[in-house]
Amino acid sequence: MKKYYVLTIMALVLAVMPAQAAIYIVGNTPFGNWNPANGVEMTDNGNGIYSFDVNVSGTIWFVFADGQTNDWNVFNANYRYGPNGNGSQEVTLDHEYTTQKSNNNHSYKFSGSGLDYTFTFNLNNLTFSIKEYEEPTVPDPYSYVVGDVNGDKEINIADVNAVIDVLLSGSDEDPEVMRRADVNYDKEVNIADINALIDYLLGGELPKPVKEGYDYVWDDEVIPEIHIDVSRTQWNQLLTLYDINPFTTQYVVATATFVKDNETTVIDSVGLRLKGNTSRRRPEGWSGHMHERDNTDWHHVHFGVNLTKYVEDDAHTIQGVRKLHLKWFKDDPAYVREMFCYDLFRRAGVWTAVRDNYCRLWLHVEGDSKEAYYGVYEMLEPIDKRYLKDRKDLFGASNGYLWKCRNGASGLNNPNGDIWYDDDTDDRHAYTLKTQTSEFENARDQLVDFMNKICNLNDNEFYTWIQEVTDVDLLLKTYAVNVAVGMWDDYWNNANNYYLYFNGRNLTGYKFFMIPYDYDNTLGTSMRCGAQSDAGRQNPLHWGNDNNPLIARILKFNDFKAKYVAYLKELVTNGKGLMDRSSSQARIRAWQARIEQYIDNDTGEDTVIEDKPASWGNHSEYNLLKNNSDNFFNAKASSINGIN
What we know:
With 644 residues, this protein is an alpha+beta fold. The protein has four domains: 11-132, Immunoglobulin-like (Sandwich), CATH 2.60.40; 135-210, Dockerin domain (Type 1 dockerin domain), CATH 1.10.1330.10; 219-327 and 353-387, no CATH class; 391-572, no CATH class. It is built from 16 helices and 23 strands. The strands form five sheets. Strands 2, 3, 4, 5, 6, 10 and 11 form a seven-stranded antiparallel β-sheet that branches. A seven-stranded mixed barrel has the order 12-13-14-15-16-18-17. Strands 20-21-19-22-23 form a five-stranded mixed β-sheet. The two termini are 41 Å apart. Residues 1-20 and 75-105 have low confidence and may be disordered.
């Protein structure tokens, strides 16, 4: 149990504080200079209570300020502190923490010791308190029990009532409540779940989940093992392919073993290749070196595994899953960033987000005395024909045109740009057609017409057209999550990292969808790029380069802009279980606790979990698990809540 240190100074009201006051902490670092513009606005908790959480090291002076007007007032203009209103009181807390009034009657000195503290100001009785910060209790997302709907660690009639309350509310509750309330695992909460609970209370058994297909492979309650076996000849071929072209997409032959819940699936004759963009590396040694048995200089790399590359039958799948993308945590010392982002997309109702999960990876080259442990990887669902088929009902059709869009003028603003199809070569293009490649000319005409309309329709025409060709709400919600997590390497800012899917193959009459992709450079990993230099504090309404026009044009309309802002603010609202700091940190800690024992690996790389962004970023101060002004979730909430 943490010890609390509380200081209370009673104040005498000499003037009435205006309604809806904005209360700031300003002063020496970390609160900024003596001006509300450089300070930090306290959180309005309602009922006249304002608070702010911050990490304090050393001695600071600070003042509460009312920032309602341009000519802001420190509180000594309206109030005087101390038992007699003379502001002279000094209090020492357990000989460690001291606050005192300075001679100018409005500043307070506080000596911290590198810990987190909560400053609270009560506008009703004008009391001010400091206490050591204590992390709020948030349920571990992996410790929930289906049926214990109210989370009291028991399953009883109260849980039946809790399900009834969910149904009567007419809308989805907290995602964790919904998971516990889905007693029969049918991905819905309805009367059947009430019946299942009642049956259990009358002496029956609770239903058990049956996970098949994609739900079996991407089961977030289990960390599966993947073992890759490859001959020495094929492994050396992979090294040679890399030396010829580091961006090679060519496969070599291997065997893959998938182990989950004591079930083992072995698939021979699978395709193994390297993946990635700026993350491309040689998986062993340096250029020209071939495999060295039992003296191997292993390197973390991204792998692609195509289970049906050479033999196309059900036996060469894992319950129908044909491909796996295996991604190391190159730019993420915290081992959580992309996991967090895709989870947030799903929590926010963005169903286009891919499935992902942790896995553990081993690699064995023929002749080696043992397999090499590559450590904890992220296992991602590929965006391909199978991805479309799995979501056919949501897309409306799965046989349309899927484009992979990457940096290289892929801002949907150049109909004469680099447009090509996946021709099974190592060539890289701004727009690459991934499906229906035999119809490339038709697909290109559709894409070019799409770009022309984005760029050239007048505002009234664009407003009507965009609602005809896409689900604008889904697109705005997708982009709200994208901006909230700080994805600067995206369509709007850097013309990169997205897929487009057109569910029809005619020149018109289709619906298009923007599919989010590649979210490791997020949550505080920032870079001076495009229109921004701070992915945490950049204005969400001016996130990127408006020469990439799609989102910028949509946000010109007040109704669309209002929806976008509402989605952003919902993401950071406390109690929603989305991207508020407390629930975000609870999920991150739970993920890290599951994998920390597995991090050490035979590459000797990335062997510890660290709370910091990528080393090459331009904002090394960001953190995920502290509670200060440099916490990414705090910074992002401040940025979003500051939108007018």
